[in-house]
Amino acid sequence: MPHIAYQLYCSRNFPPLAETCKMLSEAGYSNVEGFGGLFGDLPTLEAALKDNGLRMTSSHIGLDMLENDPAKILEIASTFGTQKMFVPFVMPDDRPNDDAGWRAFGKRLEAAGKPVKDAGVAFGWHNHDFEFVATESGAMPMDLIAEADIDLELDLGWVARAGLDPVEWINKYAGRIKAVHVKDIAPTGEATDEDGWADVGHGTLDWGSIHAALHHAGIDRYVVEHDNPSDDKRFATRSITSINAF
What we know:
Xyl_isomerase-like_TIM-brl, 8-stranded parallel beta barrel, 11 helices, 246 residues, alpha/beta, IolE/XylAMocC-like, single chain, isomerase activity, Xyl_isomerase-like_sf, 40% helix, two-stranded antiparallel ribbon, TIM Barrel
């Protein structure tokens, strides 16, 4: 069975955190993935997880915090026993527009993540869909970023949103992928109030072939995510049920 975690960002619109953690525990989760918005109050986060038997085994971290306050990042990893950390995003105005820029961005990530890796924590990049828009040369930014010495957390939903086959990208970077975001896409025209995302196993992705590819590649870290669920309990419960049935 895969190691299943829940990205707490999914429930950012459903406070308080303690109730979210209680809901996740009751739904069958034992692991979560954190995000930067939680790190302003580490004691509250620590108590919510501990009281509900949850561990924050992976986390998203902001590149600015990583570069400007690496000691804070290492404190978070140490406090929660976090094993994997990923930078998840860069604002549109900060995105490179050519091959050299994307290569330099990968090197920037590599340099920023060195203290994390030196502390024994896996470090890498988490994709959206903009990394799969080819540059003028025809190169994929995802490939250019991946030239750097970093790990990857492949978001399968965003790969599919970019019009590409998640299985091909799983196979391409099998040795580099330390975790995957397991998210689903609703049929065209459905779930418009949820930005077109679906509960895992209730959308259009072919989880049979995806799960088989992940298993073949030895990737067993599944992070459940939905960017905008209207009901996080429904999403969390139905998604873990689907994954357990893969």
